[in-house]
Amino acid sequence: GSVTSFIVQYMKINWDLFGELALGIFSAIDAGSLILMHFTTNIWACYAGYLIFKACYMFLITIATFQIAVNLSMERYALMFGFNNFVALVIQTILTVVVVDSRGLGLDIVIQFLIYGSYFAVIAGIFLIRSIYMLVSSKCK
Fold first, then answer.
1. Cβ contacts of residue 50 below 8 Å, gap of 6+?
2. Contact predicate 34/53, CB 8 Å
3. Which residues fall within 8 angstroms of residue 98, CB to CB, at 6 or more apart?
4. Residue 49 lies in a domain
5. Fewer CB atoms inside 10 A, N or C side of the chain?
6. Is the dihedral of CA 137, 9, 87, 95 positive or negative?
7. What is the spatial distance between Cα 132 and Cα 17, in angstroms, rounded to a whole number?
8. Number of separate domains in the chain
9. Cα pseudo-dihedral 85, 87, 92, 97, rounded to 10
10. Could you list the residue range(s) of the whole structural domain that residue 25 is in?
11. What's the gap between Cα 108 and its chain centre?
């Protein structure tokens, strides 16, 4: 994950135009690796899916953080990233209570992979639709 995050600084990409497309692609890869972990019984395929998921997730977080930081003044970094981390922790807690905890659905691990894979698939769809809109609107200008 750290290697993929380190690679971002050397990529010469117009992040304003292709940032959301990258977010959509890596969210789709994350969804695919989680869904692979749901449907397979091979432990090595699960390990490979986890490695792919973790590397892409770290890359995804790096791109998202960069996209946010570009549009902020330096004085607002602490407030924005502190708030983002708080909201992410709240969403993660709610999702964990609903999906994992016995007070919620209490689903087994195999079904959890499907739930989380579907979650990333929805996120990927949102980013891909938005990026297609951005690319088409930039071509029309």
1. 33, 37
2. yes
3. 104, 105
4. yes
5. C
6. positive
7. 10
8. 1
9. 140
10. 1-71
11. 22
Specify the pLDDT at position 37: 93
Distance, in Å, from the CA atom of 120 to the CA atom of 110, rounded to the nearest integer, reads: 16
**Of 7-16, 49-58, 75-84, which gets the smallest average pLDDT?**
7-16
Q: Is residue 95 part of a domain?
A: no
Write down the H helix ranges in the chain.
2-7, 15-39, 43-70, 77-99, 109-140
**36 falls within a domain:** yes
Q: pLDDT tens digits, residue range 71-118? A: 777 777 777 778 888 998 998 899 888 888 888 888 888 898 999 999
For residue 34, count other CB atoms closer than 10 A to its CB.
23
For 133, counting Cβ atoms within 10 Å of its Cβ (0-12 exposed, 13-18 middle, 19+ buried), the class is exposed
pTM > 0.85: no
Q: Which amino acid, one-letter code, is at 138?
A: S
N- to C-terminal Cα distance for the chain? Answer: 37
